[in-house]
Amino acid sequence: MLCFGVRMSFESEALISNIKRQAKRLSKKLSIPLGQAQEGVAICLYGCDSYSDLLVKIKAESFDTSLIALSALSPNSEIFLVKILASHLDSIIGNFEKKFPDSNIDEEMVISLFGLSFEQFKLKIST
Question: With contact defined as beta carbons under 8 Å apart, do 106 and 19 qualify?
């Protein structure tokens, strides 16, 4: 089991709960069905082939890319997770633009999927 700090558990159930919240936020923001949002989160945020692929990787603790670690990102997370998001933000936005071409997804929207405000994000990456 990976342990990157005390603020967020890397237990698969906690990570899956986070991913479900991210998908619900995306579903609301884009006014799309939850299933479509789950696929979008898996493909665009995590670089997985599908939502079920993402769940398999989480349950198997297969953190084969740093993107999978983003499943632990929440407002109280360690700074390194915010920095992982910052380093991949442009490609994540590009992925969303390909999957949801007319959705006008920007930095603030992607950051909000993790329950972070844009101000919190900027403050955390500046430290």
Answer: no
